[in-house]
Design a protein that fits this description.
alpha+beta
Amino acid sequence: MQMLYDSDAFVVVHMLADAVPPTDGSSEPGPQLRRHGFEIVDKRSGKEVYLDGSWAEMFQQIVLRWQLNAPTEEEVEDTLERYAGLAQNPVLVH
């Protein structure tokens, strides 16, 4: 898991597809994500959306362009605002 962006309005986390070390002392690997994805949290609404599959691939292209072009915070927030419209799941703190 890698945090990519954190502002007053949004958090973006890249969930990587790799094995999780066992936590119970056994030699068996823990749960594994089959493919990578991105979690976008809209702090204002308290909801999140998880992008995987083709959605994650499209968002990955956006992230790569951001790394090359260094967009303004406003440009990043405008893009995340569009994805926030997909957010349906309430964020729960455990």
